[in-house]
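Quick one: structure tokens for this chain, please?
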Amino acid sequence: MRSTQIRSTFLDFFTSRGHHQVASSPLVPDDPTLLLANAGMNQFKPYFLGETNPPFPRATSIQKCARTSDIDNVGRTNRHATFFEMMGNFSFGDYFKEEACAFAWELLTEGYGLEKDKLWITVFENDDEAERIWRRIGVPASRIQRLGMEDNYWSMGVPGPCGPCSEINYDRGPAFGKDGGPAVDGERYVEIWNLVFMQFQRGKGDKKGNFPILGPLARTGVDTGLGLDRLAAILQDVPNVCTTDLLLPTLHAVQDLAGREAPAEGEEKVSFQVVTEHARSIAYLIADGVLPAKDGRGYVLRRLMRRAVRHARLLGIEGPVLPAVTASVISNLQAVWPELSSQAALIEQVVTAEEESFGRTLAQGTRLLDAAIARTRESRSAALPGETAFELADTYGFPLELTVEAAHDAGLTVDEDRFAALLDEQKKRAKAGGKAKTAEALRKLDTYRELSATLPRTDFLGYEHLDAEATITGLLSGGTVVTSADEGSEIELVLDRSPFYAEAGGQIGDTGTLTLTDSTRLQITDTRYGLEGFRVHSARVLEGDVRTGMSGEARVDAARRAGLMRSHSATHILHAVVMTILGAHARQQGSLVEPDRLRFDFAHFAALTPDQLTTIEQAVNGHVLDDPAVRAWYADRVEAEAAGAIALFGEKYGETVRIVDIGNFSRELCGGTHVAHGSQVGAFRLLSESSIGSNLRRVEALTGHGTLRHQDTERRLLGELAAQLGIRPAQALDTLRKRLTALADAQAELARLRTADLRTQAQALAGTVRPVGSGRLLVQKIADVSPDELRQLASQVLNHLSPGPAVVILALEHESKALLAAAITTDLLDHGPAAQLIARAAGTVGGGGGGKGALASAGGRHPQHIDQALTEATEDAIHLLGSR
């Protein structure tokens, strides 16, 4: 059965049983606790936590997932992958264990035709109910095993639902491993489906990390996950996930590059599978907006790319590998996941640039490693220091695995324990700074969850109204729920109705006022979401005392909101223009929308030229002047995407989405506030363009009043400049250019004259030299030269004294500092460099010096001691010349 049929069979089965089909969320989750989407339940987490009421009682989905916890097992087992599709069914207070088990058994044995006697079940060690259900279904006790907390119990890692799991495993036969069931061998008895029963309420953890079970949930839930890759390997009767139809075309591409087939066993087999499997992860991550970076999810991507390239090199593939293998992924899977084809250009450009960059890293790291190996051999040590391996990895991005392999080839080991210790120290330092902040954020999050479970959702009125009657339904102070607050307090409010837009989609939150009585007034300083759908207003109590239940008028700062709307609509126009001019790959990767100012991040691989920036600015202003209508409308997600609406990377959207159209050139999913017509954006002005990371660019721009203020400032500056030049503003550029050219010519002539003057001065000083033994010596305090000229003058005097041993020492008082310069002929270097000659004098003037070889300089903060310093320098110079 091909993977397309496996997917459709799954979705058809559950939709026919009343499950609402939900599209996969992006791999970049709208969840601060997750780096990447790693389970099918991620997008349903607010429903399970009770933060949001689910719009349907049961759901089904096929979720894109990325996990790197088992990255080292890829290729070494038959079942592990860093990217996979998780097919799942979910119940939000609807059915529970009995139905979940029955659904899974029916689908596996009848829908997919798996042999019943090859299916094994694991249940949690105390879950008698689950075992009874499986026995009633027909699974004999001999094929049901009980496992402990680590294997068969689940929680989200935060207070909330938790419960036992039941896993369904398939026996692939003795060729895959030992007898004895899943408790003995996970390769032979491969886990294909995990059924999680959310049955209990988990409380807050203590300082030791223990989380108490508070009791049963009022509404139980079900979260299941059936791995498509593993099921496909079974149904297609192939040995591992890389030989299913999901990855086989990519494996063929790797084999073509290597010029041979992958072996069935051994290290080469591992390398073939690593390149194959990682290619898929790389393509999906980039398609969902992840770009290579030094940390976070960008580092996950970079690690996968570098690991794939390294294993390609182990296979003898010396040329580019990532463009070809990711192209095979796109070709094979784009029909199911159209974002792969829409982002094909971006994927190709990112992997090409990153592989070229890593090639340079490998070349540089290899040179440094070769030198380190040579030093280690010279010291007769058998192990390369862990510090060296860590520096190569941390500073130069050179993988530890390559260091270990190169050291092994040279007959050395690597102190990996020291490497691990240094890596652990680095992680601890990184965590230390944010630990307290994270703890505080999590504590507030728990408080928000408690409030959201009891309070109704705020009715947002801000699309149509900037003021509204509102009642305070919740009060927080310092992250703690309170019932009242005094004048001067900084608090957070929850309102039943609100015109204030909460920060989202790049647009910052509204501010304004809340007037409760004639003597009670609050300033709203920010509006944001504490949780999904749970709106929190930050406020300062200006007058009076505030209590829960009080009502009054909430009013948005209208001028500020107007500036935000101008910037938000301009951001949409800019997005459309950038993709038109630079290409479809240049999609938005982030934004900040402020009053009459915006920041826009997008994918691109080179700095924009001045002509490109001018073209973009003119195109945006052209669209604004055309005064297109701005229209917001609603549709379900599938309809919106079919209509060409752009969904932004990293944003989370519900089943019903809001679409904003600007004319006929921009259509995006967006919950933000916008102007009614394009001309209301006002003038648009690009301020800057810069790099903010590998393959990521940023532009900043002004709109409306921001642009006008900026133009006024520029006009005033131009007027002042013209006045200084005594000309009209239109003549400023040509006049300034001519004057700068004349100034440069004058400075060049001055420098020429000054050089000639120094030569004359050097010749005169050379005439005052005195003989010392077989050599000559000049020690002199001078004036009217710059610090840079002092060294130059000493060197020129010495030139007049050659050949033969000679020493020149000059001193200068400049801006209340003492400066010294020394020059010696090369035949004196056997006795030490020039810096050594004036070391004692430098100390006398209260400083130090430096320089290599025959020329040195020094400085100090005690110019009054220059004469004494020169006396000491003379003594040292006479001693040096006399030693000849």
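The first helix runs from residue 3 to 15.
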